[in-house]
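Deliverable D4.2, example record:
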Amino acid sequence: MAATSTTRRRAACRARPPPGCSPRSDILGGPASGRTAVSAGPGAPLLLRCGDELLALDAADTVLVRPDGSRSVVRDDRAALPAAEGVHRLETPTCEVVALCA
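Output generated by the structure prediction step:
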């Protein structure tokens, strides 16, 4: 049976990445480009970039670590914080990373 054009397109997509994507992409590539937020799990804190602010959700008693290494405690479950260029992360008081965003 001959391959259909749809089957050939699917095979081509698997064989080469779409434009703008590196074949060596890693898990931090998405957040570094500002497209992705990563949380440790469904019930874990979440950190989202909203323009020049970060929105921390379910994040009471976590620590925001900025790209320059500076740290600030997030005291409320929901907090708006100033954002800088680069990857930000939320950590527990024991330095466990629970959320990432760029």
